[in-house]
Amino acid sequence: MARAELPKYTVPSLTPQDGAKLAEILQGRLHALNDLQLTLKHIHWNVVGPHFIAVHEMIDPQVDAVRAMVDATAERIATLGVAPQGTPGALVKARTWDDYSIGRATTTAHLGALDEVYVGVITDHRAAADATEELDTVTNDLLVGHLHELELFHWFVRAHLESAGGALSTAGESTEQGAAAAAEAAGPADGSRS
């Protein structure tokens, strides 16, 4: 990071370089969490099918929790002495993933795709937690707390995609479209699959 980009101050016991490094890591997570909350709300509005109300109502608390994560992440960046970037243009410019591509679709298709979205967010969040572990306990604790909730929400999603025998309908898929198609092909997880 160039000297001009260093914060004028940061939290006690950290150097401006450490504060800048932590803020950069958190900025990536801020973009991902902003994207996730918008994706979740998009899914909330666009699910259809027999399990509509269950999924529709399951998603809103996830939106609220992720919005709280966004706020806490942005405030930590500011606490470190750096201005958080929360504009749509900054998010789109910085993101390394494709936009969510499923519109109006069945709950099964959306949950299949959301399984893949959560895999990506959680994997990157874990990497960020690893990168902050030795540098700053407070930032690391923030990320680990987020992981607790994100992994819980992921389990909620996967419970809809799991057979009574424990198999995930999205197993082996690595794209949102592929996961949605696999979940659709398997049908609803009503215990009839094994």
UniProtKB/TrEMBL annotation:
Residues 168-194 are annotated as: Disordered. Residues 171-194 have a biased composition (Low complexity). Gene3D superfamilies: 1.20.1260.10. GO terms for molecular function: ferric iron binding; oxidoreductase activity, acting on metal ions. Residues 24-162 form the Ferritin/DPS domain. It comes from the Bacteria. Belongs to the Dps family. This is DNA starvation/stationary phase protection protein. It comes from Cellulomonas shaoxiangyii.
